[in-house]
Amino acid sequence: MTVNDATKKLVKQRAKFLCEYCHSSEEASAALFSIDHIIPQSLKGSDDPDNLAVFLSAL
Question: How many structural domains comprise the chain?
Fold first, then answer.
């Protein structure tokens, strides 16, 4: 993934620091949160913030 730090910050702020799938709070969780593409890059998905989502990735 080639998403820069400013874009990652923007996506996390937009999501209010919640997983965009289960709505778990990043602040209240010991789990790792990641940013990933909604439409994969392999299918021509872009690094545009509209194509990125915050999600709970691992415990």
Answer: 1
The tokens of 51 are what? 């194509």
Residue type, 36: D
Please, what is the Cα angle at 45 between 5 and 30, to 5 degrees? Answer: 45
pLDDT of 24-35, one tens digit each?
898 888 888 999
Q: Which helix (H) or strand (E) holds 7?
A: helix 5-14
User: Do the beta carbons of residue 18 and residue 56 sit within 8 Å?
Assistant: no
pTM: 0.83
Of 58, 56, 59, 57, nearest to 25 by C-alpha is 56
37: domain range? Answer: 5-58
